[in-house]
Design a protein that fits this description.
alpha+beta
Length: 287
């Protein structure tokens, strides 16, 4: 099973857009008098503060990618590896640029990460991959000598698609996000012959070849997501979701995308104080 996720061969990953430089320079993470920007709701903003973090800025990464062409065999289940690699590379470029903006702000992490795809009328076969989130920093970490304690093991900002509520509960449990991890597989589902379709007409019968193809495609996506978490030195993944999309390839080529947030345990000194009420039992003395 090939594991995708390597950098594009054309060197595009080295290019970083400069369009956001002016905006970031006026953001709280880059200037003492700057204002923060975020996609947080009011409730999420308040809860983030209770978790001991402050928002720095809304960070964005984007890559407009031309999706190539690969023909699958008409009657065979098979992965379309050229398309799988394209979907990986495009998302990695968007994620890397979003993380570069967070690094520019000195963030400890990015919460509420969203990955979206968008098409334009002027680009047939072209998709824009957009990664967005809110860069955050732990409050008062420098004074306590814990600066960078919440960052990923490689020293960079963590990424997470958790809501502020789930992020708070994760910290309260003594864990922290490491990375938003994903695994993808673009798969060609075999066509049925006319005779096969006729034999199944009017019968309750499992479509075995379809079941087998879907199983393999989903397992490839999940296995690659797990491999990313292992590479990020995480201990587990929470919030796993498997989405199925057809995009621009036609009815028998489908992408299976598995996503989640890889996490690791923190030391006890970084655990949030108990905030949840404990259940109590009261026994009345009245007869």
């Amino acid at each position: 099973m090939p594991l995708f996720g390597s950098k594009p061969a054309d060197g595009a990953a080295a290019w970083e857009p400069q369009a956001a430089a002016g905006r970031l320079a006026q953001t709280a993470g880059a200037a003492p008098s700057g204002v923060f920007t975020s996609d947080l709701s009011v409730s999420e903003y308040v809860l983030l503060g209770e978790a001991g973090f402050e928002p720095l800025g809304f960070v964005v990464g984007s890559s407009i990618y031309h999706i190539g062409l690969q023909i699958g065999r008409w009657s065979q289940n098979q992965e379309l590896q050229v398309l799988t690699q394209a979907m990986y590379n495009a998302r990695e470029l968007a994620m890397a640029r979003m993380q570069a903006e967070a690094d520019h702000l000195g963030a400890d992490g990015i919460v509420g990460v969203q990955l979206r795809l968008q098409s334009y009328v002027w680009g047939q076969g072209v998709l824009e991959f957009i990664a967005t989130g809110t860069a955050v920093r732990a409050l008062g970490s420098a004074g306590r000598g814990t600066e960078g304690a919440h960052r990923a093991p490689d020293g960079r900002a963590f990424t997470s698609d958790l809501s502020a509520q789930d992020f708070f509960r994760l910290l309260a449990a003594g864990a922290v996000p490491v990375a938003f991890v994903l695994g993808t597989c673009v798969y060609h589902i075999a066509h049925q012959s006319a005779m096969q379709s006729l034999r199944q007409a009017g019968q309750n019968q499992e479509m075995v070849i379809f079941t087998q193809g879907i199983y393999e495609a989903r397992e490839l996506a999940l296995a690659r997501m797990q491999a990313e978490a292992t590479q990020a030195q995480a201990s587990g993944i929470v919030g796993v979701n498997v989405a199925v999309n057809n995009h621009v390839w036609g009815e028998h080529a489908t992408e299976f995308l598995a996503t989640g947030t890889a996490i690791r345990r923190l030391g006890d000194e970084h655990r949030l104080p108990e905030t949840s009420p404990k259940p109590t039992f009261t026994l009345g003395l009245d007869n």
